[in-house]
Write the structure tokens for this entry.
Amino acid sequence: MSKIFYPNRDFSKKAKIKNMCEYNEICAEADDNYEAYWDKIAKEKIDWFKPYNKVLDEGNAPFYKWFIGGKLNITHQCIGRHLKNRKNKAAIIWEGEDGSRRIITYLLLYYRVNRLANLLKEKFGIKKGDRVVIYMPMIPEATFAMLACAKIGAIHSVVFGGFSAEALRDRIIDAGAKLVITADGAYRRGNPYLLKPIVDKALEEKCECVENVLMVQRNFEEVNLVQGRDHIYNDIIKNYSEFCKAEEMDSEDPLFLLYTSGSTGKPKGVQHSSAGYILWAQWTMENVFDVKENDTFWCTADVGWITGHTYIVYGPLAMGATTIMYEGVPLYPDAGRWWKMIEELRVNQFYTAPTAIRLLHKVGANEPVKYDLSSLKVLGTVGEPINPDAWMWYYETIGGGKCSIVDTWWQTETGGHIISPLPGATPIKPGAATFPLPGIKAEIIDKDGNPTPKGEKGLLCITKPWPSMIRTIWGDPDRFVKSYFGDCKKNGKPVYFSGDAAIYDEDGYIFITGRTDDVINVSGHRLGTAEIEGVIGHEEHVAEVAVVGRPDDIKGEDVFAYIVTKKDIDEATLIKNINILITKEIGPIAKAGSILIVPGLPKTRSGKIMRRILRTIAKGEKITQDISTIEDSSIVGTIEKIFKEQK
Ligand code: WTA
């Protein structure tokens, strides 16, 4: 049985939701009249240009619609409405890896976003509904770019700066982007690196949709510029007006696309709405992080992931909070960097991933004591299950035993938090995401909707629509229905299945156990094994390949590839070739940690690779599964033997 930690009393007294009674009351209110509950919050939180006339439209399920007929612009929610009372408040505090800082007040943010919005409109002809790909480092201009798109109704699609040219190209083509916004590069581990050449390479083929490239100069390294196509932001931005009228957006107009990995095929362009998304980004900031007017909030994610979208940009700004953006890596110049920043910037809420916590614990256990971390009130984690050891270190050493840890479970598709403790209310247990947030119907069930008995693994589903849910997969509505509403039903009706498994413990706490599909989670990055296999399959010596996740102390999971070769090749060369290919076609985050050359793969008689067995072997565990359905079961023993010899 795991230990329970109660919220700090002084904190609870001032918290937005103060105890479990209050939590239960809000849940009951939402249960009693679901639409009235959301109606109340949407009216209270969103500054509408025009009110909606219906809360939820289920007519075309699972293409749910929220706040029908409402008009808004999320830049008004995130910037405009704050100018009255917060115009000189820091909206963004940016820190470069070299220690330089920029403070962007709400007023300055307003001007910067407007200028860029005008530039996009006037110079590039970007209109409502056009797609803009943003491929940028962690600099304030990345945020300006997202918000400038939102201001004029363009749909942004941010691609994580660690993705390769091929991966970037696939996303540009799928989105049909008219414009790419990028930077020359930035700094990592003290050295400049470049992004612009990656954009150039991506645009070499099949990207006819892209008319222009806008490049921000960050490190002023020399890069190639294509005449007529490429434009330097720094040179032209001042020509545009600091005032720009916000486009009136419908609640359901897409705000952005964000590509994420699925269990099969190419990445999916997850499409989010305007009103539902911003509502939940803001509500969760207020209640899960309990952010108050004078607080400073820091989420260490990259803006290229959903966590960066919702909790660096949209959530904090919608709240009128101060958000920190850091350019570099946590270990530069040493493992005390983040703690130093917390001390200097007086951070109140800190949000990071278990992989970073494990890394900083391992390489810098003595660093936190050198800094004053007493400003911290709430600590958050996201992206993967957190092991109790890392949790305890975070709780005791970083939080000084006085900060609640909010272990937030959610996904690119959910837009914002779904299951999480509330810091002033929920008694927490290491490793538990605890309970669904009020108004969210997250349940652990079987395929037919029966609740899973306590202590047994089941499927983590969300059985009622919620405002910030994915609206569709860009350009592929059938895949949307199949991917998320094809596996589980409740009362005969398809419900959203997350792809994750979870367990209720004896007290009804939810513990997430991980993915049930062929998606792996490396350092909190979601990768599709099918995608990696596709890339490895291009290596000329490879006949067959199967990729699984293997537990890793720091990364959570690591890429483990089983390979059957068709030609003789020495192992070291093969491994090198494969990792070069992965880096080229996806990016270094997907590199294989282990590669095992085997004479064959375990398959069913119909030719399906039995990955469960390969996962068990990769973990170094004993095989307990039934292997009688394998066409040639002797292959299992052979692979096990090779695995043991390699270890
Ligand atoms: C995993 C990140 C355990 C999960 C916001 C999910 C977690 C996937 C947690 C989504 C958590 C996220 N505990 N696992 N607190 N949070 N996950 O789309 O497997 O990058 O399905 O969104 O991360 O990853 P994504």
In short: The chain has a mean pLDDT of 95.
